[in-house]
Structures are given as C-alpha cells and as structure tokens.
Design goal:
It is a single chain. The chain is mostly helical. It has one domain. The protein is 56% helix and 9% strand. Strands 1-2 form a two-stranded antiparallel sheet. α5 crosses α7.
Length: 139
C-alpha cells in the first residue's frame, strides 16, 4: 500500500486522532478515552470523546506555539520531527502531573483525568502553567 493511499484511509477511519498519540503508542502514558486502530502495518490512536479531543488539541497547540523558540521553529506551523513531538507531549504531561500531584511519573496517570484536573485547578487553558512547561521542554 502506497503512502498516499494509507493517509487517505487513515483520514477516513480516524476522524479524531489523539493529540497525545506518540506518547501513548510509546506506552509512556495512558488514556481511557482512546482506542488503538490498525491500518495496514501501522498503529494509531483515536479519541472517542470529541470534547476531550478538542481540549487536548487546544492545550498542545498552546504549548507548541509558546515553545517555538525552544524547538527552533521559524514559523508557527512548521512540522516537528518525531523526537520533538514526543518531548512536547511528554513534557506537557510531566509538568502538569508534577504541578498537580507532586509527581512527574505519567505512566500511571490517565491523560484525560490529568487534563481535567488541570483545568479544574487553573480554571482555563490560558491560565495553565505554560512558562513552567516551556522551561521543562527547554531542558
């Protein structure tokens, strides 16, 4: 199966790709709102809750846009290589887990619960500790 066909099938099947897919597939975190799907030889994660998907996507985009300098991006929508995407996803989760629970071990934390707790504590996405997350990503 060629790459274009695979991408087209993936787009058709996976209407809500999980924004934290890379860290989930690497088994470095977990989320009870995702399901794994297989297309040809590839795995991907699909979100089963549209509101949670929107929230996760908004948080990661906010962190990403504030981390442009850290990642050496010239333009806001330049693609991130896999390693930097992993760093973005894991760094965001670890910093929030540390701020909320005093522990940055994300392997046992449900992403949905973590982000729900973060929004309850900080009251909005704009009030999340973005500077702390960016500092973590810069290390």
């Amino acid at each position: 199966m060629d790459k274009e066909t695979l991408e087209r099938i993936n787009d058709d099947i996976q209407s809500l790709p999980c924004p934290f897919e890379k860290t989930l597939l690497a088994v470095r975190s977990q989320c009870l709102l995702t399901r794994k799907i297989f297309i040809a030889e590839r795995e991907s994660m699909q979100c089963t809750a549209p509101q949670a998907h929107q929230r996760c996507h908004a948080i990661l985009e906010l962190v990403r846009s504030n981390s442009r300098f850290t990642f050496g991006l010239r333009r806001e929508h330049d693609p991130l290589p896999h390693r930097k995407q992993m760093r973005l996803q894991e760094g965001t989760l670890r910093t929030l887990a540390n701020a909320l629970y005093g522990d940055n071990d994300i392997a046992t934390v449900n992403i949905n619960t973590l982000l729900t707790d973060a929004l309850q504590r900080y009251h909005s996405i704009d009030k999340l500790p973005i500077p702390d997350i960016v500092r973590t990503l810069a290390k």
